[in-house]
């Protein structure tokens, strides 16, 4: 009777062999469900997984035509037999070149119909010959004002995401600046107070060599307990004693005794 270890090794070998086989070959199967504007559930007699069309960027949920594009993809692919040529993995999805009746779906059914933009940020990974086909399909759709190219003031989805990321970064920087200003105001008081945040406390009472930190669990959740060694600087800022922080990183109590005073 095979040992458990041999069984595990055999299972691992089978999984690895299947993965290598999948990566090395094209697979033909059926599109059973359309998940969004460029992704679908792909099924063969042996496996089932999510496939995402390569190098195309359809309108996002906040943009016009996103429902139209999803319906377009559904009409074209759902229930059909397609061939998937694997390119990479991302976020649990298999990025692939997908053929329907021998035709690249990304090129002829999305880019050429104006149902998506060519995904410029990812294009650097694409072979030059293949890239030319994608660029040509998009160029023709643009010249004929098909789909997304017939809309006014609509940016490619990837540009929209870059702008959102930039705005989010600016907002975070603004919030961080405001927090620092608030912390600086607390620092003027030169004394920690119950209710201040951990960031405010650290600004006023930054850790120094010799500080001791202990951690423990309580019924209220995870808390921190710090015992700080007294220095002249600590006396001036009242940053000596024991400081309790709750799981929301708020200072809940301050305790001092003769052992904290030199």
Give a structural overview.
- This protein is 39% helix and 26% strand.
- The chain is α+β, with helices and mostly antiparallel strands.
- The chain has two domains: 4-162, OB fold (Dihydrolipoamide Acetyltransferase, E2P) (Beta Barrel); 179-260, no CATH class.
- The strands form three sheets. A five-stranded mixed β-barrel has the order 1-2-3-6-5.
- A hairpin with a 4-residue loop joins strand 2 and strand 3 (48-53).
- Residues 6-24 have low confidence and may be disordered.
The main β sheet shows up as:
5 strands, mixed, barrel
**SS-based class:** alpha+beta
Look at the structure and give the CATH class of the largest domain.
Mainly Beta
In N-to-C order, the SSE pattern is: HEEEEHEEEHEHHHEEHEE
Number of strands: 12
Instruction: Kindly give the count of domains.
Output: 2
Summary keywords:
39% helix, 12 strands, 2 domains, 4-stranded antiparallel beta sheet, 5-stranded mixed barrel, OB fold (Dihydrolipoamide Acetyltransferase, E2P), 262 residues, alpha+beta
Write the layout of secondary structure elements.
Layout: H1 4-24, E1 27-34, E2 39-43, E3 48-53, E4 56-57, H2 66-77, E5 81-90, E6 93-100, E7 103-104, H3 105-111, E8 117-118, H4 128-143, H5 157-189, H6 198-204, E9 212-218, E10 221-228, H7 232-237, E11 241-245, E12 251-255
Parallel strand pairs: 3-6
Antiparallel strand pairs: 1-2, 1-5, 2-3, 4-8, 5-6, 6-7, 9-10, 10-11, 11-12
Helix pairs in contact: 3-4, 5-6
Provide a compact summary of the structure.
The chain has 262 residues and is α+β, with helices and mostly antiparallel strands.
């Amino acid at each position: 009777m095979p040992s458990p270890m041999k069984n595990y090794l055999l299972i691992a070998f089978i999984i690895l062999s299947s993965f290598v086989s999948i990566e090395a070959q094209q697979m033909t199967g059926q599109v059973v469900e359309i998940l969004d504007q460029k992704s679908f559930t792909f099924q063969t007699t042996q496996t089932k997984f999510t496939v995402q069309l390569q190098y195309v960027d359809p309108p996002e949920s906040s943009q016009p035509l996103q429902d139209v594009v999803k319906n377009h993809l559904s009409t074209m692919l759902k229930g059909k037999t397609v061939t998937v040529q694997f390119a990479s993995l991302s976020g649990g999805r298999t990025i692939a070149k997908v053929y329907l009746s021998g035709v690249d779906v990304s090129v002829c059914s999305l880019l050429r119909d104006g149902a998506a933009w060519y995904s410029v940020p990812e294009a650097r990974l694409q072979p030059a010959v293949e890239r030319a086909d994608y660029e040509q399909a998009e160029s023709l759709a643009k010249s004929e004002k098909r789909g997304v190219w017939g809309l006014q003031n609509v940016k490619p989805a990837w540009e929209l995401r870059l702008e959102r990321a930039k705005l989010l970064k600016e907002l975070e920087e603004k919030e961080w600046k405001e927090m620092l200003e608030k912390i600086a105001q607390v620092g003027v008081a030169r004394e920690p107070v119950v209710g201040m945040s951990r960031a405010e406390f650290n600004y006023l009472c930054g850790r120094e060599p010799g500080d001791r930190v202990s951690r423990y669990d309580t019924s209220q959740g995870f808390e921190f307990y710090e015992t700080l060694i007294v220095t002249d600087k600590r006396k001036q800022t009242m940053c000596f004693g024991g400081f309790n922080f709750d799981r929301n990183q708020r200072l809940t109590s301050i305790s001092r005794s003769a052992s904290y005073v030199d």
